[in-house]
Amino acid sequence: MKRSLSGIQPSGILHLGNYFGAIDQFVTMQDDYEGFYFVADYHSLTSLTKPEDLRENTKNIILDYLSLGLNPEKSTLFLQSDVPEHVELYWLLCNVAPVGLLERAHSYKDKLAKGFTPNMGLFNYPALMAADILIYDADVVPVGKDQKQHLEMTRDIAAKFNQQYEVDFFKLPDPLIMDKVAVVPGTDGQKMSKSYGNTIQMFAPKKQLKQQVMSIVTDSTPLEEPKNPDNNIAKLYALFANIEKQNEMKEKFLAGNYGYGHAKTELLNAILEYFGNAREKREELAQNTKYVEEILQEGARKARAIASKKVQEAKEIVGLLGNIYR
Ligand code: ADP
Ligand code: TRP
Question: Where is this motif: 'KMSKS' region (predicted)?
Answer without folding.
Answer: 191-195
